[in-house]
Amino acid sequence: MSHMGTIFTRIDGYRDEIIDLQRELTARVALGPQNGGSGEHEKIAFIMDLVEKLGPSELRIVKAPDAKAQDQYRPNLIALWEGASAEKTVWVLSHADIVPPGNPDLWDGDPYVIIVDGDRIIGRGVEDNQHGFVSPYLALKAILDSGMSLKKSIGLVVVADEETGSDYGLNYLLENCGGYFKKNDLIVVPDAGNEEGTMVEVAEKSMLWLKFSIHGRQCHASTPDKGNNSLLGAAKLIISLQDLKNMFADSDAIFSPPTSTFEPTKIEGNVPNINTISGSDIFYLDCRVLPRYALDEVVLASKEIAGRIARENGLDIDVKIVLRQDAALPTSPDAPVVRALANAIYQVTGKTAVPMGIGGGTVAASFRRKGLPAAVWHTCQDTAHQPNEYCLISDIIQDAKIFASLYMGD
Predict the structure, then answer these.
(1) What is the b/e burial string over 174-212, where b = at least 16 CB atoms within 10 angstroms of the residue's CB?
(2) pLDDT in tens, 77-87
């Protein structure tokens, strides 16, 4: 049996270990302070114990100061195994934090206790982004447990704060520990993909989150003439903001979806009772904008629409930017990391990888802004942030083989 065959056979036997890892990771709830938690400490500590057993040449926790988090910091893990060649390192970066489960009634069970249903593992975080850690970790474990030497140096990084901006995660690492990453390294972020495992993400849209605060006058619901219904104004504004789709209507086939998107999402609570007309309402708009458009233009257009609705309805409307991430320059489809990934995918599955862009945001954008080519890839069912989020055990096994091929390839 070939060396890769030996490694693949070992990976094929990891089903029980995959389930155990997902169970333990899911139980260690890693919500950041902005999402109602205390940080990623417990999950990172568990991961640190795992990787330490694989004998890394370097293992450290980088603490990003955060006064709202447990012990006033957010933990980021860096682990490195030196290979025969010091010419380049394969870095695989995943994130420890998760999003809240949302309405518990929409889940089949406790979101933090996994359900194994045949090939499926269900639980909050199992895809986003525990899959992104488990598969590259098991690939490395299979190689080392097989007694084989690494051709390249391998680095596993698990960051905090990916779900709420990365200021305490990768952005902090790049500013304070950026010397780890070199332009000729192969940097993979397993945080987006498709069901076939063929999408290699090389570009992302700009991301803009806007907060709209609508102020009217509260009154009794039986005498609406004595007030000014801010909820009605919010509804009119939400509908009017759909005009942004026509104002920024260009399409780019490299992206999926190919157009810019402008979606109302979160609504904050207003009055607690039915028979009171609200005098203040707040909602948010999530905008994913093709790189050809300047975000300043989107902000200006949104404020003009809000201003018109305010004038027509006698309301006061305030528009604020909650998050802004301008699109980074894309990774070239011919970059070494893209070619190496495509080769590993083909070697394992016989499928041809396709470089694409996405509307979602990943930390690959932070690498790209620093001039570091990064590729986003894994095989996923695209259930992130949904109730009953799940991943497939077979996908994790296949991805582990692809990572092993990437680690051991020329």
Answers:
(1) beeeeebbeeebbbbbbbbbbeebbbbbbbbbbbbbbbb
(2) 999 999 987 78
Active site residue 58: no
196 catalytic per annotation: no
pLDDT in tens, 246-255: 999 999 999 9
Considering the candidates 97, 161, 395, 399, report the single residue annotated as catalytic: 97
Question: Residues 99, 165: contact at Cβ < 8 Å?
Answer: no
By DSSP bridging, strand 85-95 and strand 186-189 are parallel
Q: What's the pLDDT band for 1 if we cut at 50, 70, 90?
A: low
Of 210, 89, 95, 236, which is closest to residue 151 (Cα–Cα)? 89
Q: Quick one: pLDDT at residue 3?
A: 86
pLDDT at 259: 97
Partners of 189 in the β-ladder: 376
Structure tokens at 148: 């084989």
The pLDDT value given to residue 62: 98
Q: Which of 127, 161, 162, 185 is catalytic?
A: 162
| pTM for this predicted structure | 0.85
E runs forming strands in 161-308:
186-189, 199-204, 206-215, 219-220, 255-256, 261-267, 276-277, 280-289
Strand partners, 282: 213
Q: Would you list the DSSP string of 218-232?
A: -EETT-GGGSB-HHH
